[in-house]
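dumping this here so i dont lose it
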């Protein structure tokens, strides 16, 4: 990783992890009968999206689907992987599913750690989020 906090070489396109607790937001609607705004609390399922640029975003389950984060991410620059000791190399040369899964977790951790180094821990630490491989809502 370079000093400007961007990942070099093969890396995941993004990492999507579900936040354990739901978040309470307020929805606002117009009550035409009483001619006033009505505010109602609403529990929302949230996801953290980590990008290899070092940015991270908190999205609702609906936004995850709308923005395409509900699919498995691609490995960027995967065709250039030669180092069998790198997480991408371990994934590429894995001989069984268990080894692939372990390498995939390392690829995810690379992206999450980069985001945490660049901006500090998010408002939810990595221990407070659940892995959600499919990111399906």
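and the seq i came up w/
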């Amino acid at each position: 990783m370079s000093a400007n906090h961007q990942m070099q070489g093969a890396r995941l396109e993004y990492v999507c992890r579900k936040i354990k607790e739901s978040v309470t937001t307020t929805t606002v609607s117009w009550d035409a009968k009483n001619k006033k705004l009505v505010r109602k609390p609403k529990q929302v399922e949230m996801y953290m999206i980590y990008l290899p640029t070092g940015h991270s975003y908190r999205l609702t389950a609906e936004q995850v689907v709308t923005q395409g984060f509900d699919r498995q991410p691609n490995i960027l620059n995967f065709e250039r992987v030669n180092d069998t000791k790198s997480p991408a190399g371990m994934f590429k040369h894995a001989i069984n599913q268990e080894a692939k899964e372990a390498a995939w977790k390392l690829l995810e951790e690379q992206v999450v750690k980069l985001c945490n180094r660049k901006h500090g821990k998010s408002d939810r630490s990595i221990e407070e989020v659940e892995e959600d491989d499919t990111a399906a809502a």
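The mean pLDDT is 80.
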